[in-house]
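chain below, 503 aa
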Amino acid sequence: MEIFQKAKVVRLKSHLEKYLVADNDQEHTRQSRRGGASRNARWHVELVDGNSHVVRLKSCHGRYLTASDAPFLLGMTGHKVLQTAPENMKDLRIEWQPIKDGFQIKLRAYGGTYLRANGGTPPWRNSITHDNPHTASSTHNWILWDVEAVEVPEDEQLSDYLSLVSTFSSLSDELSSLDMGSPVSMRSSFSPRVLKTTPSINLPAMEMFHRAKTVRLRSHHDKYLTAEEDEESVTQDRNGAARSARWTVEFPENTDNVVRLKSCYGKYLTASNQPFLLGMTGRKVLQTLPRRLDSSVEWEPVREGNQVKLRTRYGQFLRANGGLPPWRNSVTHDIPHRTATQEWILWDVHVVDILVQSPLPKAPPPLVIHSDSFASESNSPSTASSKSQSFSGQESGDSLDNVARMVGDGRLIFYRISDDYGELDGVEERCMPFKGNGVGELKKMLEEETGLEGIIVCTRSVLNGKLYPLRLALPPNNADMAVVIVPSSSTVAGDFATAKMPL
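prediction:
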């Protein structure tokens, strides 16, 4: 009970490593492995007056987690767990008693049943019920939950509030008509669900693309959006290191809320009018090079937690399909009507290359790499000048932070490839997201990014300017880092081998 008394917002993770999620239909609940980053996995904690042993859990839709009386399946044990907005707040069905079980908790409903995360085959898979498991001990873990406290940023608190009142159309209309300050200050504060007609409301999602030159898009199925060699088809593939999984970002003139994505073959990601299968919903997404760049090659990013949805001008979304062939690995644009396919339109955005613009008349603030091993590197005159050239297009460190938020719990790695003698003059600095602390892991990912084999990942000393190979684990605080890649065929690599340079 202690964590619920201290935390205002929590996430609940089941033994299946999936999160308790409130569906967008504002009625059902389920489990989702990748939905933990979205607002749907956040539950606001309310303490019950006069009873310090129970809590209420409110979803992002303003509805309460409820142990309903409706059976999940007729003739079977287990009743549905829903989101409801009860007329009487004294309704015991919305109250849950946390009971500690080791490092986890059980949530007991008013009738002595427990919140249960079901496994197995459909329709049980990913479902949530409340029940008292009397069967074998193998299902005892199904009622155990890990509780994770969530810190909601201040700029999201007002957005959450507006999302709650958006279910009342009269209040929503009034809020939409109010003048709440300058557009610049409110862009990241208001929920798209309330101010649907505000053109700048999707700019937070555009931040993922504004400083990006090249991106990769990873689907709910952990596969990457890939341009096929026929230079026409688009599919999903697990090989994110392939050149065909990289998409160049372009920004159409006279608009600030859409992007174009160009494949490695110089063709645009296009929402075509061709049906994927006759008689079925969903239309083909292709690579095309139209004579006139029209709205079919424009995609509007819409933010959903740490992910994005890519919407066409006609309201469909870029969708990564699953299931059996011919659906498996296909990509279409459609409006998903089933709850089970809602996550198929969510994409992780990985920035491969950062856009470097020409120098501005006013020099930007210096970039500081927040790492113990690199904190002093930016003080070197040569290093500072090279960094100011590489990042002259970034108006401040905050712009880089916007990109850094895309890697979630990871860090940004800034890397340059040295010449044969370890020099970096005129070498372009690039960036990639990285999750992990192992040097071997980092080396493997850099090899995939650069296409080089047998590289040596180094840092440059600010005392004598020499390169030092990385041997230990990376700093554990996920601070951004700058490294130098030394090809195995270079003279510097040979010096390392003969110990002429420090190891």
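The domain at 356-497 is CATH 3.10.20.90 (Ubiquitin-like (UB roll)). The chain is about 15% helix and 30% strand.
thats it, cya
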